Amino acid sequence: MKKTIVTALMLSPLAAEAGSYCELDDSVMFSCTFKGGAKTVEVCDAIWLDGDMAAYGFVGSDGTVEKEIITDKASIAFTPWNGMGAETEAVSFYGGEDYTYEVWWAEGLHSADGGIIVAKGAEVIATLSCDPGSVRSNLFGLIAMIEDATVSP
Q1: CA dist 39 to 30, 42, 89, 115, Å?
Q2: Core vs surface per residue 128-148: b (16+ CB within 10 A) or e
Q3: Beta pairing partners, 56
Q4: 30, 43, 63 from 134: Cα distances, Å
Q5: Which of 76, 104, 145, 150 stands the most exposed, by the fewest C-beta atoms within 10 Å?
Q6: DSSP class per residue in 23-91
Q7: How many CB atoms lie within 10 A of CB 38?
């Protein structure tokens, strides 16, 4: 059932959004812009790499990748929607040197919000909110892939 839902979500209009980081447009699982479009974050199902991998890319306005994390899906921490209130989901990438990059998404009644929380250890050192209207998310699909990766042999 999960694989059917993931496949359906990947074929949704979200999957057609062109990416500035992800190599294949249909691999974008989350994207948004910051500072009026000056920066972009994308989380990808890194299907172009060997293994069951995911990628995080933070890109400047000139297209320069400022931060890149490529990791196996089984090592990604996640928080799925608990089924109550506004739908909220998050995935966390370990960036080395005790840094984590949490990408989050929340679907409200009229709009979607998202952002990044950067922490070093337990201390939050940066919080970025996505530009209004720029959030495109399929974190639900990515979380299903992460769950599958953690139970696969």
Answers
A1: 14, 10, 22, 12
A2: bebbeebbbbbbbbbbbbbee
A3: 43, 69
A4: 10, 14, 17
A5: 150
A6: SSGGGEEEEEEETTTTEEEEEEE-TTSSSSEEEEEEEETTS-EEEEEEEEGGG-EEE---SSSSEEEEE
A7: 11
Residue 143, both tokens: 């979380």
H-run or E-run covering 136: strand 136-137
Task: Summarize pLDDT for 69-113 with one digit per residue, the tens.
Answer: 999 999 999 988 876 777 788 999 999 999 999 999 998 767 889
Spatial separation of the C-alpha atoms in residues 21 and 39, rounded to whole Å = 11
Cα–Cα distance measured from residue 54 to residue 73, given in angstroms and rounded to the nearest whole number = 6
